[in-house]
Structures
1.
Amino acid sequence: MPQTGDNKILGYEYPNMAWLAARPAARLNHINPMEEPNTMTHRNLTILGAAALAGLLSAWMAGQAFDKVPAASSASQAVERARREVRMLDDLYKTAVVLVNDHYVQDENSFAAGEWARLVFTAMKEKGWHHARLVDATGNPLNAENKPADAFEAKSVKSLLAGQTYLDEVENRDGKRFLRAMTLVPAVNQKCIICHAGYKVGDVLGGISYTLPIEE
Ligand code: HEC
């Protein structure tokens, strides 16, 4: 389980001010043997206006440095576009859910971040967009439906618990390619722990599992 500390969240060191920290470099081990070997890149976290939130957000999003596949072929460019979409969606969902959680959660009867996520993900799916779901990594979910549901989710949740923050792979279904991706969801602050009792800030609670068609 990743360790937390004053300037160390999920294993990453932050300089003096957490909210000014650039995204740390993280070697992300892709689990898809079909992809070309990747070179490590990292990009800066956009500095958010709400300083109090941003430190937590950067912790949550820490390590979401995504490897770049060399633009060798249009097939790998299509995969890269899908990865970029995951990155954008992940920033959007996590920024929104942390804001909702911080501003509207009073106690364990409040509207839960997890319920918010499920409703938004269902709406997006029904509108014909990507599929996303919140997946449990603790083995003891508040909603049993959030257990890992297939082989990709099961193995990527194990990797999240082992310290990784992002994983993806390309899946073929009926001749179409899909990007499967999993991003880390830690307990970002004390408000999460109101309902997810027994955990501490920084513990891995789960992940968001994405399935996006790869537009060739
Ligand atoms: C008000 C109570 C409450 C708060 C606060 C809360 N959650 Fe949850 N969480 C829930 C409930 C209830 C579910 C099950 C939701 C569902 O699937 O409908 C859930 C589900 C989850 C899951 C999926 C695994 C599971 O246990 O079912 C994760 C991961 C998760 N929450 C993370 C977080 C994070 C991170 C925060 C803080 C940003 C947070 N939660 C804040 C109540 C809460």
Note: Residues 75 and 179 are 12 Å apart (CA to CA).
2.
Amino acid sequence: MDNPRHYFLWDARSFLLCSVVFSFLELSLCCPKECSCEHLLVNCTDRQLEEFPSGIPMDTRQLILTHNNLTYLPSVDLNLLIDLVYLDCSHNILGNSLEATFIAMPLVYLDLSHNNITKITSATFYLLTSLVVLKLSDNPNLEEIEKDAFANNTGLRQLDLSRTALTYLDVTTVSELPSLRTLGLSSNPWDCYCPLKDLLKWVMESDIYFTDEENLTCTTPAHIHGELLKNTEKHINLMCFTNLYERDYIFLMLVGFVIFGSGTVVAWITGVCIVIYDRLCGTSEDDEDEEDEEPPPPPKPKKKEEEA
Ligand SMILES: *[C@@H]1O[C@H](CO)[C@@H](O)[C@H](O)[C@H]1NC(C)=O
Ligand SMILES: *[C@@H]1O[C@H](CO)[C@@H](O)[C@H](O)[C@H]1NC(C)=O
Ligand SMILES: *[C@@H]1O[C@H](CO)[C@@H](O)[C@H](O)[C@H]1NC(C)=O
Ligand SMILES: *[C@@H]1O[C@H](CO)[C@@H](O)[C@H](O)[C@H]1NC(C)=O
Ligand SMILES: *[C@@H]1O[C@H](CO)[C@@H](O)[C@H](O)[C@H]1NC(C)=O
């Protein structure tokens, strides 16, 4: 430590450290002009924002962007917020699938309700492994959620998919979430035909809490329009299983007919063959018989001629 070089190094290090700390302080002290910031919470509610606000402190833990006009979230800016656990982007006009938007954040709460999201793929939320609450309700153009869309969100306790355009959802998308307690599926135009039967069965048997259950109904087919998903067992049994048996019977009958038909044809051909064979063999035998009956040419006269 007596060595002046050490002093110099130490000074340089502390200077660097100080400037880093200072710039961090500066970053955390500043606040986007459209927002209010306090205690690691940045609130930009209802400011007619069309772009993600710049200059959000890097140590922000809660970010509220609700009731704005955001059409997209810039992944780079968003993922600089490495401490962000709470993000409310409800009531905007975010579109598409938001793939590659969320990368490095420890998000626990994510609200994307009341937007214009059209599709959720397996790459939308797969890196948000800390998620506990996810709200996707009131996205009127959300038509598709891929089967393994939430496969990595194993901590998910609350998931809201109400009031979207979903007609179908693969049951494993939700049934294999080990922590799920509350699920919103209501007021979607569910197409309660046989492809949905596994989800319907799961809704009947699951002990999860379904929000707004009186609006958890089928839209199609027409004869069970407005029926609660929970009360569709009879229809599903009639529609899917009995029909299957009927189809099986028809199939079996067809197979029977085919076997019967081909059997008849085979029998007929065999018969014809036997007859033809019989005829052919019969004539040849007759020929042989005729040949047999023909008296062999007597050599004797020749001998006699020779003798003569
Ligand atoms: C955010 O700000 C709005 C008004 O600008 C206010 O109504 C709301 O309560 C605030 N939210 C929080 C969590 O402080
Ligand atoms: C933002 O959207 C609202 C409706 O949601 C609209 O009334 C307003 O004009 C929009 N503002 C801008 C700046 O586009
Ligand atoms: C919502 O998305 C649909 C389909 O991508 C598009 O046609 C429509 O214009 C969008 N609505 C808004 C308000 O951006
Ligand atoms: C889950 O996340 C990890 C990274 O945290 C990733 O490597 C893996 O592919 C993800 N699995 C799925 C099914 O998306
Ligand atoms: C069910 O939906 C109707 C209209 O779609 C709505 O008026 C009603 O409030 C909903 N029920 C609940 C409990 O939200």
Note: The first strand starts at residue 36 and ends at 38.
